[in-house]
Recover the amino acids of this structure.
């Protein structure tokens, strides 16, 4: 129990006591108000109640001991400093009560301005403002409105409705035309609304207003929307929010007063120069609420030159201090400038790169820091094609940018229709209220997906991201009527076959076709833009930062590529080899027939013939790839999928046989195929006869592939090139499997390579949990490990990827069981632990063992950081992800602090 002697826990900080590093305790807003105060900037005095007080209140249901007294003491000293008492009838001190958590969070209580006004102090306020009645009553009606809405949950529309009525009665649309009498009348109307909804009169006691408002901020931490937002953004639920109590300054005192918001650079493009809006004779949110037309900040120069100059000076100072783009809120009270908020401002992906580059030029940050200021997700965004909107084409609706990209196409409302039209070669956009697992085929067929409901974790969003398909979800202005095959939006009716365009980055929806243009950043990576001679500031910044990332990173970046064309593109994107060359496609197309012969082979002789026919075809494929990757390592995976995947589907074969029999044709071959397919049918093909198991069961299959690889390498080398093949055995779970394959392969390699100087490594994938757990043994027979994190994730979780993502991942995400699909970003705790064990024990058994990763995680930003930290040698990813992986590998290498990316 707290006694009088124990030192009381400090729950309240004066602005002068805090600083920007105290965001955990004071929240973002409070920490930055303190920082500005200590910089000597004009901040209205005030104090911050800590997040710890909020946490204590939320766990016990009451304000912690000592809090009330500390608030009292800080209020008293604020009153002394200001020379006024809270709500004093003659000359009232008024305050704002503002929430402010560590991360800014929609769904929490916003702000109550003018706390301390009541029926008596409103007169005092007017007198003090030189008899400005209008101002005093305007401030009072705002208090009742904001207090009613945010503290007592009175529906906001009722107040807005009463305000509209007052303007209507006056025959105006501008709130400035309401005079003091009108506003006094409005206060009466507001009080009635307040009483009707709360069952009590509007509280007249200033201290009660203050306490209720503070408590409402605490409570808003657990508002439903706030909880949902935290879950999605992975913000811990126990942080709590701080509360800022700030003495009021008034932008609504007349034409020489006003309020505004500004950015120190353009947050859209990153261009230098200030950007902002100003509204004269207004308070608080009026600027952003759009109730009157704001003017560009530059016009303030004409209105109030000295405040304008001071503001510019402060903005320059803030940039220099924070070394980054800042956004600010300010108010001018009768020619006196006040700073009400600042923070490091949000920006677009393009602006992030441009600004980071500029700050280096300006000497404010170094290149390591610039690398921290951007991320792979932003780079990936810049690599998508964009809509080319020359003039300002207005969107008809805006939803959530759920999966990036730009897509135009004909509207369809059912999965079946999407499949039909796509088969005719049309681009289609599947429009649904929300999607469900039955829509999967339509989603695959569509260019893009548009829904009127659901957020970033809805079924549509999750599945679309998994497929890399453009998706806008939750465009709630759309009235979707599936039976009638139409949707309506803003007076337009859009039917099946009409064209719409959707932007999965911004969430915007356009009627008609919007032309799509390729990304300049991709053109740069493709090598068609010379970075030294280009005046596109974005490309210049990307070039500079990528160059630094490449110099800094320890991880190598390879690509997953199965063809010469993919290999060539990836190389232009900076790939330093191939980490996964699948050989499956080498058994498809017109080569299927040879595979059928292989499977149906009656004896050794027939099988060898089929393999001999496949050999030169495979060799030619490898020659092409080795040439493109001249001098760089190429990891070739021996055939992995179950063989029946190369045969026609059972149903189709059965029908063919029946029809042919009916016609009296010769069906011997079809029947043989059919019985082979029946024989090879598996209940769980993913856990069946595939990978190394195939190689051990079908004689000569792996041997043929090994020979093709070795011969191709020798051929390329004889032509003056350098081939560096690495043969990778999939799905190994026991060292004995690998040893068997290895013994056979080594013989063939020795025979083929001879004295050509070609060196062929043999290694294995680590993708079965048992392989990870026995890595020490497996390393004895492997020169390298490559983590196949897709299968490793499937088998560690027991998830069949093809089924689970569409079936229930949305629910898991909604419940917060995971924040992101473990197929998108590696599950560091579980799957990652297997990687760690295998890396450590593998290297212990064989120092110098090469370690890489070839699952899709190789191109995921968070996963790249994990692989860096585990100490792998390289990651491998699809060609388009190579630049993202290079950037993130660089960021991982220079990361020293756990900097906040939120
Ligand atoms: P948000 O986090 O939604 O921006 P704020 O707490 O910043 O909420 O406040 C909303 C508005 O009220 C802002 O425009 C801010 O500048 C203004 N405001 C807040 N406190 C004061 C104050 N003490 N005097 C004048 N205006 C204020
Ligand atoms: Mg604000
Ligand atoms: Mg696999």
């Amino acid at each position: 129990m707290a006694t009088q002697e124990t030192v009381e826990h400090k729950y309240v900080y004066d602005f002068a006591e805090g600083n920007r590093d105290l965001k955990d305790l004071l929240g973002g807003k409070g920490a930055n108000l303190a920082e500005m105060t200590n910089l000597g900037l004009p901040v209205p005095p005030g104090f911050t109640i800590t997040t710890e007080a909020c946490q204590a209140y939320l766990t016990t249901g009451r304000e912690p001991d000592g809090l009330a007294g500390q608030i009292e003491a800080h209020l008293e000293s604020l009153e002394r400093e200001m020379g006024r008492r809270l709500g004093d009838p003659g000359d009232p001190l008024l305050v704002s009560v503002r929430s402010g958590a560590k991360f800014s969070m929609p769904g929490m209580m916003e702000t109550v301005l003018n706390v301390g006004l009541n029926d008596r102090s409103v007169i005092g306020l007017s007198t003090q403002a030189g008899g400005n009645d209008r101002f005093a009553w305007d401030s009072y009606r705002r208090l009742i409105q904001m207090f009613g809405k945010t503290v007592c949950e009175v529906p906001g529309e009722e107040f807005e409705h009463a305000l509209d009525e007052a303007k209507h009665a006056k025959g105006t649309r501008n709130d400035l035309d309401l005079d003091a009498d009108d506003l006094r009348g409005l206060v009466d109307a507001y009080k009635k609304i307040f009483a009707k909804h709360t069952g009590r009169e509007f509280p007249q006691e200033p201290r009660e207003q203050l306490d209720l408002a503070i408590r409402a901020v605490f409570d808003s931490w657990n508002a439903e929307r706030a909880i949902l937002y935290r879950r999605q953004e992975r913000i811990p639920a126990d942080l709590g929010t701080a509360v800022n109590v700030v003495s009021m300054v008034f932008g609504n005192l007349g034409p020489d007063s006003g309020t505004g918001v500004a950015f120190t650079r353009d947050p859209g493009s990153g261009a230098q120069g200030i950007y902002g809006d100003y509204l004269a004779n207004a308070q608080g949110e009026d600027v952003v609420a759009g109730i009157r037309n704001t003017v560009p900040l530059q016009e303030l120069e004409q209105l109030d030159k000295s405040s304008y100059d001071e503001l510019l000076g402060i903005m320059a100072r803030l940039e220099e201090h924070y070394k980054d783009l800042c956004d600010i809120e300010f108010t001018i009270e009768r020619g006196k400038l006040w700073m009400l908020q600042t923070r490091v401002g949000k920006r677009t992906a393009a602006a992030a790169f441009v600004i980071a580059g500029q700050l280096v030029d300006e000497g404010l940050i170094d290149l390591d820091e610039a690398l921290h200021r951007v991320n792979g997700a932003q780079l990936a965004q810049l690599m998508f094609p964009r809509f080319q909107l020359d003039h300002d084409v207005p969107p008809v609706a805006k939803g959530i940018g759920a999966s990036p990209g730009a897509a135009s196409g004909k509207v369809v409302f059912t999965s079946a229709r999407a499949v039909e039209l796509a088969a005719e070669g049309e681009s289609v956009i599947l429009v649904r209220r929300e999607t469900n697992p039955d829509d999967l085929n339509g989603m695959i067929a569509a260019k893009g997906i548009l829904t009127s409901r659901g957020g970033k974790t809805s079924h549509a969003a999750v599945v679309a991201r998994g497929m890399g398909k453009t998706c806008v979800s939750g465009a709630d202005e759309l009235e979707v009527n599936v039976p009638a095959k139409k949707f309506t939006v803003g007076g337009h009716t859009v039917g099946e076959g009409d064209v719409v365009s959707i932007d999965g980055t911004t969430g915007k929806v356009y009627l008609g076709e919007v032309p799509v243009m390729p990304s300049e950043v991709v053109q740069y990576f493709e090598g068609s833009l010379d970075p030294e001679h280009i005046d596109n500031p974005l490309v210049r910044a990307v070039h500079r930062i990528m160059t630094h990332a490449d110099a800094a990173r320890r991880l190598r970046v390879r690509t997953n590529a199965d063809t010469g064309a993919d290999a060539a593109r990836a190389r232009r994107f900076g790939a330093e080899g191939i980490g996964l060359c699948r050989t499956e496609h080498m058994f498809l197309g017109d080569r299927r027939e040879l595979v059928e012969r292989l499977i149906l082979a009656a004896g050794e002789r027939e099988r060898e013939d089929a393999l001999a026919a496949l050999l030169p075809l495979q060799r030619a494929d490898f020659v092409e790839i080795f040439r493109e990757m001249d001098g760089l390592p190429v990891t070739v995976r021996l055939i992995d999928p179950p063989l029946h995947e190369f045969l026609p589907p059972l149903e189709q074969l059965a029908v063919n046989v029946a029809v042919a029999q009916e016609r009296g044709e010769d069906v011997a071959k079809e029947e043989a195929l059919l019985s082979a397919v029946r024989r090879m049918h598996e209940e769980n093909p993913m856990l069946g006869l595939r990978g190394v198991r195939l190689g051990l069961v079908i004689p000569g299959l792996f041997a043929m592939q090994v020979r093709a690889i070795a011969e191709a390498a020798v051929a390329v080398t004889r032509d003056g090139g350098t081939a560096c093949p690495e043969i990778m055995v999939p799905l190994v779970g026991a060292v004995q499997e690998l040893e068997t394959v290895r013994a056979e392969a080594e013989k063939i390699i020795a025979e083929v390579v001879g004295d050509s100087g070609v060196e062929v490594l043999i290694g294995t994938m680590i993708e079965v949990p048992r392989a990870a757990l026995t890595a020490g043994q497996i390393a004895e027979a492997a020169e390298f490990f490559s983590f196949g994190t897709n299968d490793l994730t499937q088998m560690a979780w027991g998830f069949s990827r093809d089924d689970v993502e569409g079936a229930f991942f949305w629910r898991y995400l909604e419940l917060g069981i995971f924040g992101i699909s473990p197929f998108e970003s590696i599950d560091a705790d579980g799957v990652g632990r297997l990687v760690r064990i295998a890396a450590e024990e593998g290297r212990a058994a064989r120092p110098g063992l090469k370690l890489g990763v070839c699952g899709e995680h190789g191109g995921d930003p968070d996963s790249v950081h994990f692989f860096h930290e585990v100490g792998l040698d390289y990651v491998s990813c699809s060609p388009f992800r190579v630049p993202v992986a290079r950037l993130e590998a660089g960021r991982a290498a220079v990361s020293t602090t756990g900097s906040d990316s939120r």
Q: What stands out?
A: Residues 640, 730, 767, 788, 790-791 surround magnesium ion (ligand 3) (CB under 6 Å). The chain is about 45% helix and 15% strand.
